[in-house]
Amino acid sequence: MKTTKEEKSWIMYDFANSAFATIMIAAIFPIYFTQVAQSAGQAGDYWWGIGTAVATAVIALFWSLIGTIADFKGYKKKVFTFFLAIGLIFLC
Q1: Could you give the CA distance from residue 92 to residue 3 in angstroms, rounded to a whole number?
Q2: N or C: fewer beta carbons within 10 Å in the chain?
Q3: Which whole-number Å values give the CA distances from 12 to 8, 77, 83, in the listed order?
């Protein structure tokens, strides 16, 4: 069975996203954030937990609506690109 160009693109995206999530989000960000927050005299673990909880709640509340609008209006690529840009900005 031969894979299409679109399938190869999604496979590469999933591969890169999985590596990013494993290395950056699960291992490096929590350690870095807690050290930076603790050096500022705050409880880094507490604020990391609050930030993660708020981000998860926002995603849970709004992503179905955003996904529906993107599918219905035909804005899949624009929505994807917008959130990719937001992610890159905050990563930097």
Answers
A1: 34
A2: N
A3: 6, 16, 18
Tens digit of pLDDT for each residue in 8-41? 998 998 998 888 888 887 888 888 877 877 776 7
User: Sign of the CA dihedral 88, 5, 73, 55?
Assistant: negative
0.85 surpassed by pTM: no
Q: What is the DSSP string of 8-46?
A: HHHHHHHHHHHHHIIIIIIIIHHHHHHHHHHHTTS-HHH
User: Are 48 and 42 in contact, with CB atoms under 8 Å apart?
Assistant: no
Which amino acid is located at 57 in the chain?
A
Question: Residue 61, CB half-sphere, CA atoms under 13 Å: how many?
Answer: 6
Interatomic CA distance for residues 16 and 10, integer angstroms: 10
Task: Tokens 């999530």: give the residue.
Answer: 21
Cβ(34)–Cβ(45) below 8 Å: yes
